[in-house]
Design a protein that fits this description.
The complex is a heterodimer of chains A (157) and B (259).
Chain A: H1 3-29, E1 40-47, E2 58-61, E3 64-75, E4 80-88, E5 100-105, E6 112-117, E7 130-131, E8 133-135, H2 140-156
Parallel strand pairs in A: 1-7, 2-6, 5-8
Antiparallel strand pairs in A: 1-4, 2-3, 3-4, 5-6
Chain B: H1 2-38, H2 40-50, H3 55-79, H4 86-124, H5 127-133, H6 138-176, H7 181-191, H8 194-221, H9 227-257
The chains are: A alpha/beta (157), B mainly alpha (259).
Chain lengths: 157, 259
């Protein structure tokens, strides 16, 4: 093999290795490999307090991810937060309408996510429907405040 | 006093002139990209000397940086019972910061200095003037392929650096220190976003590649054509590239990750 062909071979190996590395970063290191990229339908839920919930946080039923949070905004009319959930199309008309949406925390210091507890209704959630029953995020200061207040009441009796 | 002020003015004008020449050169090299399409062989040769010959230092550095990250991260995280976040910590710091930045610094030292010395020596031995005598534009024929090669190489090298770093972190964390394998990889995939982290890292390394190669080629092309001038230009390449990379990294990070 002459010199210039050898150089071409090495450059080919270099380029291939570089692209393999990029592919590895995309599929193995980042969330691209297992991200759901299909269509979703939008369901709204209103919360008194979303705590530290972020856009793209997972939405789960029975611990299994069925969607992601798409949008969080504040509704100035009823002073509550509106969270738009993007649920995978496969679950359209499969989740009961009286489903209970809770903001939960993964572990003690983990990220917040939305857990759905399916109800018993025969009407189902579709595009644009709204979840009526919700439970806000647990804000640590409020919990501690309530605890201290409770202790104070006990002492007064 | 007046003399001192005059000196300052002369220095400022010189700096401005150099900046202007650098941009004119950049434009000329960008125009030269069309020429490369007709002679891809020139690019392949430069990819070999700029990219392939840098693989070794990048791989070894990436592996060891990842291993050190794994070791240090484990000691700190295990104090809080958070060893499971080791994968995320190693991968996030590599993909976002260390991969592009350290690759660019090593690239400036290994390939940038070589580019400056080569081009400076070509100028000192009047090879560039010789090309011009033969009606060949050295900016198109000599400089543009080197510039494009640097631009292509740095992002690929940075990706290799990050991957080997993650492998090094995994070898230390999973192999030596016994971090749970599933937690290591799942934590990494949960926490690293393709667009926010991986793509931004690639953009960063592209910018660094452009700046490092540009500085290296300009310093060589603009050097005083003596042996002392070439040696000074080579030093300036490494110093300026490193400072530019570190400064730009702050700006890019603020633009990309600060909201």
């Amino acid at each position: 093999m002459n010199k210039s062909r050898q150089i071409e071979l090495w450059v080919g190996i270099f380029m291939a290795a570089g692209f393999v590395a990029l592919f590895f970063l995309a599929m193995q290191v980042s969330n691209l490999g297992n991200a759901y990229s299909g269509d979703t339908f939008r369901v709204m839920a209103r919360f008194d307090n979303v705590g530290g919930l972020k856009v793209k946080a997972p939405v789960t039923i029975a611990g299994v991810e069925v969607g992601r949070v798409q949008e969080i905004r504040y509704d100035a009319d009823d002073f509550r937060a509106v969270v738009v959930l993007g649920i995978q199309d496969g679950y359209k008309d499969r989740i009961p309408e009286d489903t209970f949406a809770k903001i939960l925390t993964a572990g003690l210091l983990g990220e917040q996510y939305i857990g759905l507890d399916p109800g018993g209704s025969l009407d189902y959630l579709g595009e644009g429907s709204e979840i009526g029953i919700t439970q806000s995020a647990l804000v640590l200061e409020e919990v501690i405040g309530q605890f201290i207040f409770g202790k104070g009441q006990e002492g007064a009796e | 006093m007046i003399e001192k002020l005059r000196g300052l003015g002369a220095w400022g004008l010189q700096a401005l002139l150099r900046l202007g020449r650098a941009h004119v050169l950049l434009l000329a090299m960008l125009r030269g990209f069309v020429d490369i399409l007709r002679r891809p062989r020139l690019l392949v040769e430069q990819l070999f000397s700029v990219g392939v010959l840098t693989i070794l230092i990048i791989s070894v550095a990436g592996l060891f940086v990842g291993m050190v990250l794994g070791l240090q991260g484990y000691y700190i995280l295990s104090r809080f019972g958070g060893e499971t976040a080791l994968g995320l910590m190693v991968a996030a710091s590599l993909v976002r910061e260390l991969g592009p930045v350290l690759t660019a610094l090593l690239f400036a030292g290994r390939a940038g200095s070589a580019l400056t010395a080569e081009i400076g020596l070509m100028k000192a031995t009047e090879q560039l003037s010789g090309l011009e005598m033969m009606a060949v534009n050295p900016q198109y024929r000599v400089l543009a392929p080197r510039f494009l090669a640097g631009l292509i190489s740095v992002p690929l090298l940075a990706a290799m650096f990050s991957v080997l770093g993650v492998a090094g972190g995994w070898m230390v964390g999973g192999g030596m220190l016994g971090v749970d394998q599933a937690a290591f990889w799942n934590g990494m995939q949960e926490g690293i976003d393709f667009e926010d982290d991986v793509i931004n890292g690639v953009i960063k390394s592209l910018v660094f590649g452009l700046v490092c190669t540009w500085i290296a080629i300009f310093q060589g092309y603009d050097c005083v054509p003596t042996s002392e001038g070439v040696s000074r230009a080579t030093t300036r390449t490494v110093v300026h590239s490193s400072l530019a990379v570190l400064g730009l990294d702050f700006v890019l990070t603020a633009l990309m990750f600060g909201e």
